[in-house]
Amino acid sequence: MTFNVSQQEFSQHERGVSRETPEPGEAPAWTPIAEEAERASRVLHPDRHGMPRPAHRRILTVANQKGGVGKTTSTVNLAAALAMHGVRVLVIDLDPQGNASTALDVKHEVGTPSVYEVLLGEIRLAQAAVVSTASPNLLCVPATIDLAGAEIELVSMVARENRLKQTLSGGALDELGVDYVFVDCPPSLGLLTVNALVAAAEVLIPIQCEYYALEGLGQLLSNIDLVRSHLNTDLHISTILLTMYDGRTKLADQVTSEVRQHFGPTVLRTVIPRSVKVSEAPGYSQTVLAYDPGSRGAMSYVDAAREIADRGAAMVAPDASNGR
Ligand code: ATP
Ligand code: MG
pLDDT digit string (tens) for 66-93? Predict the structure, then answer.
């Protein structure tokens, strides 16, 4: 009886048993651990993978009045990804829950200089901005629970919808030297969110890949239209990010294609997967990039941030007077 296997094939087969040890000069074999290490290296050694600065400063309001869709998670992780790759970023926590402040490891107990005092005109923006432990390029203006009262206190104020815009003007952002500002909104369409929509040119809407994802979105879109026609003609939806994608469900794909059909190229190609690591990170006052840099969640936020940065670099600078 003869075996129809050549010596060469046999030795290849034999070597195949332990493919994790490459031959000298051979590229390392693919393994899940190697892939995770490669992802972690891309997150942790950003100098080799820097992201471009935008053509002009970008202010993005992260809004969706639906609760728990990933506004805060997306704000802090996109901001951290940009900052770790060389771009200077400011996060303004405009939610009295203070979740963005927690995730960025910035103090937000009552009495801490916060966005509340800034909105009331008691302190300047720079006096409340703190460098996050997530990156030296990442600043955060925290929110304390005091902000819950602001929704009511603002009602009787002059130019109540313009308070945040005013605090960002007059060189306040030049002083901080930031390229990007992300404003994390509460889950409502109240005066705080309106202030955020007036202060920004761009809206970033996170949409959760779930059944009720599109429900209520109409209300957000009509509010954006209202603000655009009465208070801020520059306002537009520039970015849509699909979050908490679960590849095991048919529904996630249905929602994804429906959103892409409706919003076209505004939707980022990168989709954020549902991942335990992403939800665990804030419990350690960390972004997922710091908590588990090799995870799919971290990598997808880096990819989404790169798309945002590339779009920003491709924008046309309005004119030379628009300083950074
Ligand atoms: P709110 O409306 O209350 O401000 P939100 O829109 O800011 O909520 P997040 O707080 O970012 O939403 O997320 C809601 C919950 O879902 C959090 O517990 C968060 O950790 C979790 N979460 C967010 N993104 C993911 C993800 N990709 N995978 C798993 N869990 C996630
Ligand atoms: Mg939130």
Answer: 999 999 999 999 999 999 999 999 999 9
- Give residue limits of the domains in the chain: 51-313
Which amino acid appears at position 266 of this protein? T
Task: Please give the model's pTM, rounded to 2 decimal places.
Answer: 0.87
Question: Which residue ranges have their beta carbon within 6 Å of ligand 1?
Answer: 67-73, 95, 99, 187, 243-244, 272, 274-275, 278-279, 282, 297
d(CA 304, CA 289): 13
Query: What is the distance of C-alpha 277 from the center of its chain?
Result: 16
Distance 73 CA to ligand 2 centre (A): 7
Q: Which fold has domain 51-313?
A: Rossmann fold (3.40.50)
DSSP string, 36-62: HHHHHHHHH-GGGG--PPPSS-EEEEE
pLDDT at 26 over 90: no
Tokens of 82: 């940009």
| Arithmetic mean of pLDDT, 90-111 | 97
Buried b (16+ CB within 10 A) or exposed e, 286-307: bbbbbbbbbbbbbbbbbbbbbb
